[in-house]
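User: My instructor asked us to take a sequence, write out its structure as tokens, and then describe one feature of it. I'm not sure where to start. Here is the sequence I was given:
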Amino acid sequence: YMSDRLHFYTISEGVVTKNSSAPIIFGCSNYRSGYLSKSEKALDGIIGFGHQDISVISQLSTQGVTPRVFSHCLRGDIAGGGTLVMGEIVEADIVYTPLDLS
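Assistant: Let's start with the prediction itself. The structure tokens for your sequence are:
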């Protein structure tokens, strides 16, 4: 495992705070194997967003930085893009789909 600081913007009640950061621990790999379609052999959180306590989201939640939730807002057009949010967005027009916890 490696440890480093995750740098991010914090948005609270419409105010953006730049240069926020928190220490995290994460794994590094240059080789992946297994069947992603079979849950017992799948990688757990390819980018550190798995269900385990070591996930990036769990670490940030434990430190009081963000709730234990993340959102990936897709743009929906052919160009791709979107926004990855660690924590909650409180907007009237946001539609959430819960993750399967099994």
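For the description part of your assignment, you could build on this observation: Residues 38 and 70 are 23 Å apart (CA to CA). Try explaining in your own words what that tells you about the chain.
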